[in-house]
Amino acid sequence: MYDVVVVGGGPAGCYTASLLSKNGFDVHVLEEHPVIGEPVDCSGVVGVEAFEELGLPDSLKLREISALTLVSPSDLEVHFSPASPLANIVDRAAFDRAIADKTMASGATLHLGSPVTDLQLRDDCVEVVFEEGVSGGAKLRARMVILAGGPRYRLQRKLGMGEPADFLKTAQTETPVRGIKKTKVLMGSQAAPGSFAWIVPFPKRGEEFARVGVSSKVVAVPYLKKLLERLCCDGHLDSPDIPIRSWVIPITPLPRTYAERVLAVGDAAGQTKPTTGGGIFYGLLCAEAAAHIATGAFKKGDFSEGTMGGYEKEWRQKLGVEIKIGAFFRRLAERLTDEEIDDLFRVVQSDGILASVTSKARFDWHKDVIYFALRHPALGRIFFKGLFR
Question: How many Å apart are CA 102 and CA 292, to the nearest integer?
């Protein structure tokens, strides 16, 4: 019997496995795909704080995002240029593999091509069932399990954890581009209903590439295709006919992120920023909480729901206020009309406001900027209009 089985070899799962392995536990990671980091379902934009937390080499950085241009429905622009870089654009597949390498170096064992199909709670363990034909057979037994397999919730529902109440639909492509030098975020009903679109340029093999994507409260692919057609008409692309990947992002946590002998971490727990859907940094913080509670459970020999529930309390102490404020802000932002978004841009362009917003901007922590925006007389008045519709 193993100590811990981690379901999912992404950043949250591998980081949890690494922490537990360093604490002396026998940890096995089951990753469904045959190659770590593929396919890529992410913009590849990682906050500076998260990147530094992982202690990864600078060679994974393709470019720093030191400035950001926001574009309104009528093409008004606001340019953010903070004193220090906001984030890094990374080779996401290589980023994931670097984390997995550190996990294996810590002593954990990684099994590729091992999709988990079921969990069965026993009196003294969890039986993990995965597909036939992989090394180690079709079942593993572990004293506890960490669910970190991304936004799939069948096992969580079975264990009484439920599933997130809200999602973003997301689509993205990566393509060579011309004449795009800065990261852009586009807003409005024609670009990305209820959310935003992005254009993130970076160098690759001596050429200029960009990740172009859309997140939306409705199906995102048609809006991405429209954006690609626009970029093609403007001379930035040779053709809009480019392969597209699409996926969903949870923007609310599970009703409960624990069960007897089981914890959920990262997207598998819905632990993402409600404002943007970004999940890497939140996943790392929650991985630390999961490793702490799991270590305590082993010391006590107690894997009951009562002990596992300490995980929920710990990660919510770190992120609960950020998630609550972010979710409230998202509800307000989703109600804005295109005209109101334009009005926000005009207010932000006025003297002093942009500097104040820029000074408070942090890629992974949004509460201070949100407080400023909602308490500002002109900005707050626009945001709160939607409450009365």
Answer: 19
d(CA 141, CA 129): 9
Residue 367's identity, in one-letter code, is K
Residue 31 lies in a domain: yes
Cα 337 to Cα 171, 285, 382, distances in angstroms: 23, 35, 10
- 33 and 136 in a single domain? The answer is yes
Instruction: Please tell me whether residues 147 and 263 are part of one structural domain.
Output: yes
Indicate whether 239 belongs to any domain.
yes
**Do strands 245-250 and 258-259 pair parallel, antiparallel, or not at all (unpaired)?**
unpaired
Cα gap 111→124, rounded to integer Å:
23
Which class for 122: exposed (0-12), middle (13-18), buried (19 or more C-beta within 10 A)?
A: exposed
Query: Which tokens go with 292?
Result: 């702490």
Residues 276 and 155 in one domain: yes
Question: pLDDT tens for residues 105-121?
Answer: 999 999 999 999 999 99
Task: Say what angle helices 338-348 and 353-360 make with each other, to 10 degrees.
Answer: 90
- Shared domain check, 304 and 155: yes
> For residue 228, with 0-12 CB atoms within 10 Å meaning exposed, 13-18 middle and 19 or more buried, which class applies?
buried
CA–CA separation, 16 and 385 (whole Å): 42
DSSP string, 127-160: EEEE-TTSTT-SEEEEEEEEE-SSS--HHHHHTT
What's the pLDDT tens digit per position in 161-203?
Answer: 999 999 999 999 999 999 998 999 999 999 999 999 999 999 9
pLDDT of residue 134: 47
Q: How far apart are CA 371 and CA 374, in angstroms?
A: 5
Express each pLDDT in 116-170 by its tens digit: 999 999 999 999 998 855 455 688 999 999 999 999 999 999 999 999 999 999 9
In terms of residue numbers, what domain contains 305? 2-62+91-164+254-328
11 and 124 fall within a common domain? yes
Whole-prediction pTM = 0.94
Residues 259 and 347 in one domain: no
Strand partners, 68: 80
Domain count, the chain: 3
Which tokens is 196 given? 């935003």
Q: Tokens 């996926």 sit at which residue?
A: 247
